[in-house]
Design goal:
Layout lengths: L13 H6 L1 H16 L9 E5 L5 H8 L3 E6 L2 H11 L7 E4 L11 E6 L10 H14 E11 L2 H7 L6 E4 L3 E10 L4 E10 L7 H13 L5 H9 L1 H4 L4 E10 L3 H10 L2 E7 L12 E7 L5
Parallel strand pairs: 1-2, 1-4, 2-3, 4-5
Antiparallel strand pairs: 5-11, 6-7, 7-8, 8-9, 10-11
Helix pairs in contact: 2-3, 5-10
């Protein structure tokens, strides 16, 4: 897979993801893995963290004693992964590669892909390529665990409204998800603001204190209102708009793709045990089929 065909677009927001969402998502996903997957694994199992991003989850798993290999297509994301692991999980190994076309030197016990990373695989044929590569990377009867925001869920919740964000002293960001139900293609748009230079005026200091107050959960709705008009609040800050596409795969086609690429014993779960509906992400567990050879 050439550099041009890898998903390199995520280099742009690697620093922001590492600084903000990465650690929060990692802690949330570790709780999920502790609940659903990790109790079924042997000690020191070798886990491939596919689309590992900046490596915060890989670090947490490495500290639990698992052998961890992380793979991601973004060179900048992996730079942060190496840095995050340096002192906390130095035994972790990271590979620059594409989920659709990779190979490992030896098979692993388990492959995970979290935080709906596979929603960024934009066609069913590419998704099958991912599943095929994962199957090749697993030992016999190895387990593949991943979550995905499925079509019905995206259709209900990705409505073009600002969903999350924060405001800090020198930067601010907000994420707005969009979804076209007919095309089954969406995106999340990241609006990023950075202070152009230091401003120690009393007026700016007052704004900074106000932004700190807005970090309280109780004021989340008001913080989002401020972010919607942030260019007016900080007209001299640098502004960038980043757009990351997603695909709304259906649960049925995902199960079929897993079957066609050599998986069996496929389970679809929700985190709270509820029946899958348009309110819940889908968590998949699939096992590599036993070879008949």
């Amino acid at each position: 897979m050439t550099v041009e065909s890898r998903y390199t677009k995520y280099d742009t927001w690697a620093w922001l993801y590492n600084l903000t969402m990465g650690s929060t998502y990692a802690e949330t996903q570790l709780k999920t893995l502790d609940k659903i997957l990790l109790p079924t694994l042997k000690k020191r199992s070798h886990i491939l963290d596919l689309c590992c991003g900046t490596g915060q989850l890989a670090v947490l798993l490495g500290r639990k004693g698992y052998q961890i290999t992380g793979l991601d297509s973004s060179e900048q994301m992996l730079k942060y992964a190496h840095k995050n692991s340096r002192h906390r999980a130095p035994q972790n190994n990271y590979i620059l590669g594409d989920a659709r076309d990779f190979s490992l030197s030896k098979p692993v016990d388990t492959v995970i892909s979290t935080s709906a990373s596979l929603n960024h695989i934009m066609s069913l044929s590419d998704l099958k390529s991912v599943f095929f590569q994962v199957n090749n990377a697993l030992k016999q009867e190895g387990v593949f665990f991943f979550d995905i925001n499925h079509h019905r869920q995206l259709d209900k919740w990705w409505n073009g409204r600002l969903a999350e964000g924060e405001i800090q002293k020198n930067y601010a960001w907000g994420i707005t998800p969009y979804y076209d139900s007919q095309a089954r293609i969406g995106s999340f748009q990241v609006k990023l603001y950075e202070a152009a230079k230091k401003n120690n005026s009393l007026f700016q200091m007052g704004k900074t204190l106000f932004y700190k107050l807005l970090s309280l959960k109780i004021l989340n709705r008001f913080r989002l209102k401020v972010l919607n008009k942030f260019s007016a609040w900080q007209p001299n800050w640098n502004y960038a708009e980043l757009d990351y596409p997603v695909r709304g795969h259906t649960v049925e086609e995902i199960k079929q793709a897993l079957t066609e690429t050599g998986f069996s014993r496929i389970s679809v779960l929700t985190l709270d045990g509820a029946e899958l509906d348009d309110n819940h992400s889908a968590y998949f567990i699939a096992y590599k089929s036993v070879s008949n050879e």
